[in-house]
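tool=predict chain=A
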Amino acid sequence: MYAIRVHLETTGGRPLPGSPGAPAVRDGLERRLRGPARLSHARILVTPAAVDAMVFVAARTLLEAEDGLRTAWAELTDPDGPLSGWHLLHCEADSRLALGLHELPSHP
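tool=predict ok
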């Protein structure tokens, strides 16, 4: 499984009315991620002008995971897709998570 950090912004950086919620974005990813790569789980934050996500993809290789995810985002942001008006700025493996260097917040 590979942890991939994703960032999208609206075209022009201006908020779009009726931005989709995190469940709709996750559902769109699940439907569009094809082939040997599949969505394991995702943490998605949607604001009116940006989408930030940490997506965990099960695949044979990191390249397969990144390519599959980029293809899924391309379909989502297509002019006829549910995220038309958005563009993908970042879609790469999170090296800190991959190397186990992350720190999880502690909760009392």
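Residues 5 and 54 are 5 Å apart (CA to CA). The first helix runs from residue 22 to 32.
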